[in-house]
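Incident review: delayed structure delivery

Summary: a single-chain prediction request sat in the queue longer than the usual turnaround. Root cause was a stuck worker, restarted by the on-call engineer. No data loss occurred. The affected request and its eventual output are reproduced below so the record is complete for anyone auditing the incident later.

Affected input:
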Amino acid sequence: MKALHTITWVLLVIGGLNWGLTAFHWNAVEKILGAWPNVVMVIYVLVGLSALYEIFNHKNTCKMCNPGMMNKPTM
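Output delivered after worker restart:
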């Protein structure tokens, strides 16, 4: 589950940075992958699914939101 959490976190960072760049009329995902519109769509879907995953699972995986996690051994 740690790998899935890490992947979703990375995708959310990419999505957040891309949203910030769109304020300056620059879409990083389309600039990098614009030649493959289907891949761009897949990236957007993955970012959206990552957001949903984190909405529903964040409290279970976040050490700040779940103080009991601080003392749990890591695997």
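Verification: The chain has a mean pLDDT of 83.
Action items: add queue-age alerting; document worker restart procedure.
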